[in-house]
Amino acid sequence: EAEENARALEDDLRELKDEFEKESAAITALWENAVKEREEIVVKPKKTGIEIVSFFLAWVPRWQITTRDAAGTTRTERVDASTGQ
Known about the structure:
Elements: H1 2-36, E1 62-68, E2 74-80
Antiparallel strand pairs: 1-2
């Protein structure tokens, strides 16, 4: 009985694989045709129909500090001017 169940499951699996292959081929053919039938549409930008609702500009003051040690190595740091960090 176990062998019969195994054979039945193998048959079911084979049928599912065949069905998958057929449906996969159909979908592939459909998309290949869609790609062949594509049409290029050029959309030119216009200056009309543009509305700027709001515009923001933020500025964070920073200090740039450059130091050179005794060995001649230069080091540059940026420090937030409002917090000093």
